[in-house]
Amino acid sequence: MSVTLFDDREEILSLMSSCQRPGIFSHVNPDGDTIGCALALYHRFTAMGKDPVVLCESSIPREYAFLPGARNYRKQIPADVDALFIVDTSTVDRFGNFELPPGVPTVNIDHHITNRGYADYNYVIGEAPATATLIYELLEKLGPLVFDEALCLYTALFTDTGGFRYASSNVQSHLIAAKLLAKGIDPWQVTVEIYESMTWEKVQLYKRCLDRVVFDRKKAIAWSYLTLSDLQETGTVASDTDGFINSLRAIDGVEVAVFVRQDTADSFKVSFRSKGNIDVSAISEAFGGGGHRNAGGFQIQCTDVNRVMEQICEKL
């Protein structure tokens, strides 16, 4: 069930109309929701005669290169931005190393239940199917969507609901999807780009992940990990691990899946997925991260993957 945490929609719509040089942030290690939402805003601002810029510290994953505007991402905030729109980003540390310019109004649009409303203006509906549903509502207030906006938002909604398989999917997500498809979107094209275009290098990485799966039947937990060496030896990048954790959660008898990926020599990214009423967002928050009831994650400073799992098991 979704929960309205912050609702500054009117102020946000006013700022969308008045700003001239908006910056639009996607979070680090971007997924389809943050990319699709940012690009939908980018296209709307452009149509309104503004000069927007999309920003992300990380590189955009290969599977999202088909989205219109995906090549326009930049890694530096222009000095003349007059508003900052941050999408699908639960905490400020998810900005990465960007330093927000002082005095520039900030907008936080998100669906994570752990979002604490860190911006000047916040529109946060916890446990909404995707941030895409919130962006859709805002854009509809300003006028009908066009094809490029619809393609970006459909991709955002489709990926963040796992192809409408996750518990977060509901009547709203399907109704919005239908309206987006009515703009001429080919759902099979999106499916192929996201889920049916795995490189051979990624297959080799996936094999390593599956080879290391540990299943604790008593605790109903499955976990696996990948190291920097795995990425280097298979010729892959961090974003190629996206979706691996879902295979762990899909194991019969698993209630909580944990995937640990080494990002640097002394840091790991930990992801959780759960079934039913097991709230992994609370566990993620305990480590300084965030997320949803059935999906969460955090970064941890450590050099030993086994020590990382020991700390996690103490909380589970």
TrEMBL record:
Signal sequence, start to end: none
A Pfam cross-reference name: DHHA1
Molecular function (GO) terms for this protein are: nucleic acid binding
Superkingdom of source: Bacteria
Q: Where is the DHHA1 domain?
A: 235-312
Show where the DDH domain sits: 24-140
Name recorded for this polypeptide: Phosphoesterase RecJ domain protein
Q: Which organism is it from?
A: Desulfurispirillum indicum (strain ATCC BAA-1389 / DSM 22839 / S5)
Could you read off the lineage of the organism from its UniProt record? Bacteria, Pseudomonadati, Chrysiogenota, Chrysiogenia, Chrysiogenales
